[in-house]
């Protein structure tokens, strides 16, 4: 989102700290609505366009991931940070306390204070507020309530080396000290401790291979640890013995269990807000989880899992509106679009429903929007009945239709070309260019509205282990792709999702490094260059 601030205001000196007389930060495309007019000399503020801008996460938060080594805490921390930033507009910063610069508790505490107490009205206040008559102590409360939130996420990729640090949260005393420190901040910050408990030996071994066996065919690291701290030397690179490495790692875990103190259920830590996450959502225990943001965090991490899986994204085939460069509407497919639908129906069984030539079919899922062009694109995909290994039956590629996946609604400009919009509504075209993410079509939607309606589907998507094909629209898939690939949401409206292309996102189950993107293009004519949707 692009923000502007004008004019520069004077600060008034009072007994309490100085405060601005007027905050006038707002979404650029709504600037004209905030100005006084003859008919409206006292304009109201503009409601934020999505829950992520409504101040629901306005408090400062510190989230600490704790637990035994090789449980995937950096992986969870990175995914949670991405989710909160993308869907809730929070400013997140991750702190790997095993990094050299954070080894000193006092240094880390200073960094946390700077991050959590910094005033950031320009990035969080979405409306123009006149504060001339508000007392300074009231201003502090007001500022907290309109802030879109700051969240510091703490974790360690080397728990053994950081055990003695207060911010490791590895004992009752450390967790109590963390909470006590945060209560001293001028802008009170809430602490949430998430303990990751994995007693599945096979999964623990996978995390060991993923983090340490970089030269034994596994992924590079357990989440953010290596990406932030530099390449770790792999034991496998010197002796090629992965089993010896695993044995050594398991011995290290056993040694760490002698000093690590799990969150106590005897009442001694009942004042602590915490989550105990067993085996990635198989069981979840919560304590003092109150408020919108904490509930969303618990819901989200309950869905995340480290199992390898694939996601496939495709726009619908060329529609009759694409052919004449119109936006919106509910048209059907052209001949080229129908040709792509037939190609997709033949391609899916051999490339999604099986892991390779000659391999048995596996359970897969299919989502489309509620619009005719996506349903028509997916209608040739077969839906055989599979018998799974446990004796259950599975309807292959059973169609699930979601209105959440519909194209962005252009309101009064549905069925128009961009040339027509620029000719008849030049001011609106300029406003949209100023702020493509925040601009809302007259009586239509903005990309923020799109983000809000996609959030519940992304929770559902995160819980799946089966391959999933999503057939949707350019604006919608821009946001889905950006979220999945860790692209900032301000960049998402600039992405190009071409027609007649399948995009594959491969997760290895351990984070962003495991994602690869390939494209499978329909061998027929490519029509995406003139589909009329580039500016949507």
Task: Give an account of the 3D structure.
- With 536 residues, this protein is α/β, with parallel strands linked by helices.
- The chain folds into two domains: 54-126 and 142-212 and 242-303, P-loop containing nucleotide triphosphate hydrolases (Rossmann fold, 3-Layer(aba) Sandwich); 309-521, Rossmann fold (3-Layer(aba) Sandwich), CATH 3.40.50.
- Helices cover 34% and strands 17% of the residues.
- The protein contains 18 helices and 19 strands.
- It has helices at residues 73-88, 105-117, 121-124, 136-146, 159-162, 172-183, 201-212, 224-229, 236-239, 242-256, 292-303, 320-323, 335-351, 372-378, 418-424, 426-434, 447-463, 474-485, and strands at residues 3-5, 11-12, 19-20, 22-27, 60-66, 91-96, 128-130, 150-155, 189-197, 274-278, 283-287, 309-315, 365-369, 385-387, 393-395, 399-402, 468-472, 501-507, 517-521.
- A six-stranded mixed β-sheet has the order 6-8-5-9-10-11, sandwiched between helices. A six-stranded mixed β-sheet has the order 16-13-17-12-18-19, sandwiched between helices. It has a three-stranded antiparallel β-sheet with strand order 1-4-7.
- A hairpin with a 6-residue loop joins strand 2 and strand 3 (19-20).
- Helix 7 (201-212) packs across helix 10, helix 11 packs across helix 17 (447-463) and helix 15 (418-424) crosses helix 16 (426-434).
- It is flat, with a radius of gyration of 26 Å.
- It starts with a strand and ends in a 15-residue tail after the last strand.
- The model is unreliable at 1-26, 121-147, 215-235 and 525-529 (pLDDT under 50).
